Amino acid sequence: MSAAAQDISGRRQSYSATSKWLHWIMAIIVIGMIPAGIIMSKMPKGPERLMIFGYHTEFGIVILLLVIWRFLTRLRHGTPAPVATLSSFERVASTSATHLLYLLLFLMPLIGWLAISALGAHISFFGLFHLPALMPKDPAAAKILFLLHKIGGISILVLASAHILAALYHGLVKRDGVFSRMWPGG
Q1: Among 2, 16, 58, 162, which residue is least crowded by beta carbons within 10 Å?
Q2: Is residue 5 included in any domain, yes or no?
Q3: CA-CA distance, 141 to 119, in Å (whole number)?
Q4: pTM for the whole thing?
């Protein structure tokens, strides 16, 4: 990293290129996953629902792999120091929301995988192979796990919406450089 890419403390001024791309790829997938989950839950049983369920599950596993990669990238490259113009509330809120989103994006695919395992179904990964069951068939546990997955999905929707609104506020209203630190090429 060049001296120009660091602030006075030696911390980065923006996120690494890998972090930026992982952020936006995950954002696109998550934005697709939420409506897919809602639509799927309202559909009658049948081949169309099963197809959406399969894609939802497969992309859930992709999110799990990407969030692990993103976490490792964060450990390796670090994060930029907070923008000096952020209030204490904004710093606490953004840090808390980011950590909670990481946690939920890690847990949600695992809870979904557990729920599908408890249902007694198999997870195909884009037809390449099947993932192993994480627990034996247990319909009562599957019901609880699917409920937890739904609650987690709603939580991600709320947090992601707040994150998007905050990013737009910083990019369009405050114009303080917060948004550009995660924009590819920024």
Answers
A1: 2
A2: no
A3: 8
A4: 0.88
Tokens, residue 105: 């994006």
Which range is least confidently modeled, 41-45, 115-119, 131-135?
A: 41-45
Domain holding 69, by residue range, is 13-181
Residue type, 101: L
> Structural domain tally of the chain?
1
Is residue 54 in a domain?
yes
- CATH number, domain of 171, equals 1.20.950
Give CA separation, 59 vs 40, 83, 93, 119, 130, in Å.
Answer: 14, 33, 28, 19, 14
Please tell me the number of Cα atoms within 13 Å of 67 on its side-chain side.
22
Our CA dihedral for 48, 130, 31, 93, rounded to 10 degrees, sits at: 140
Cα distance between residue 108 and residue 155, in whole Å:
10
